[in-house]
Amino acid sequence: MQKMTIFSSFFTIASALSMPLSVTFAAALSIWTFPNHAESPKAQEDKQEQGKTLMITKGCSSCHQLTKLPAAKGLVGPPLDNMAAQSYIAGVLPNSRENLTQFLLEPQKFHADTAMPTPDITQQEARRLADYLWQE
Amino acid sequence: MTKTIHIKLNKKFYSIAALALFLIGALIFSLVYFGVYNVSALTGHTTPVYKFLEHARIQAVDARIDDEVPDLSTFNWQTSGIANYKRHCVACHGAPGVAPEPFSLGMMPPPSAIVRVARQRSPAELYWVIENGIKMSGMPAWKYRLSDDEQWELVALLKKLPTLSKSEYAQLAQKSTETGSNKAIIDILSQTPEERALAKPTSTQQSAGEALSGQVAMQQYNCSSCHVIDGIASATYHVGPPLNNMVNRRFIAGTLPTTRENLIQWIMNPSHFKPQSLMPNLHVKRHHAEIMVDYLYQIADDNQSY
Lengths: 136, 306
Hints:
The complex is a heterodimer of chains A (136) and B (306). Chain A is mostly helical and 136 residues long. Helix content of chain A is 57%, strand content 3%. The radius of gyration of chain A is 21 Å and the shape is globular. The termini of chain A are far apart. The N terminus of chain A is likely disordered. About 7% of the residues of chain B have low confidence. The radius of gyration of chain B is 24 Å and the shape is flat. Chain B starts with a helix and ends in a 7-residue tail after the last helix. In chain B, α3 packs across α7, α3 packs parallel to α9 and α12 crosses α14. Chain B has 306 residues and is an all-alpha fold. Chain B contains 14 helices and 2 strands, in the order αααααααααααββααα. Chain B folds into 3 domains: 30 residues; 153 residues, no CATH class; 92 residues, Cupredoxins -  blue copper proteins (Immunoglobulin-like, Sandwich), CATH 2.60.40. Chain B has a two-stranded antiparallel ribbon with strand order 1-2.
């Protein structure tokens, strides 16, 4: 009985220690095996670059924090990291690329009291921003 | 000559290895024997244990799921699915804008925020967990309590939940109560007097002998199922915004200026300030809210604003 406890506890600890390694490996493997878009890498990069520029020129970065964009370190609204994993936008709207685009075009439509101003952006620019934020 | 040295080295190596294994074994044995690891449900597991268990759970479910998933759109999630959800699930898991019952907040592991799992897990995984339950987690097996179709209806509903706003869910829930003739559902929705008493905002007076840390308070009201919070191993989810540097942000929920008092008020009654907010009213007592806010100041980047 004691032997059994020692053995199983040892196994537990050993697995706990090796776990982060296997997770990293699995993540790396899945990224490597499933490229995310059919689009050419160049076109994708351009879109990302446009998204980044919009983040700064349209004022998003002065209120929001985004780790992948060091210029964005505002502390007015919530941080925008991990947008793809976020369940809700502004705590009121179920999150999807489409809903995020709509929200960016007119935040007050979804949350009347929001402190977020209506950004001066076109439909296409909103789409670019949403794609940029959703990109991991 | 060389051969003897070789053998001697080997012997030394093996005896050291055996000793090391014995010491590790003895250490682990004494951790268990002397009850070092705490099984209290007031706080969660330590980070390595939590990560290990979570990984083991995902692997165990993935190894057993059936790849054949029926077409979810054929299931009646709007009435029968919601009725079963309200009867069997909402008490622990809540719903968009609906808080779970008080008892479930004391569970450890905390019942997961339903929209988060619904987004992360495939229909096959969700079905398996509903059917089989999960050992030692509080999740029961519904296999012999609900029919296959009823369980798939729940899966279809779960997949819909993350797309519903607070008011959309409320409408659907209302409709199923009106059409459903099941009295048990209505009973479970109406609070008992004890629950109403629990829900009442209590005075700031702290009950004697109660010394609750902010970290424990955050776990006991299940904040950790929806928010990223430093110092709580399980708090890694993005249902609501991360709370790590919350006190340094200008607005709470995009609408309320951040002050210590406003944070306390917000935690105690979010929908008072933002009716359409998906954050439910968890009936946090004032002194607990204060402790939580103190904790938020502790984990913020810069303590000067305190």
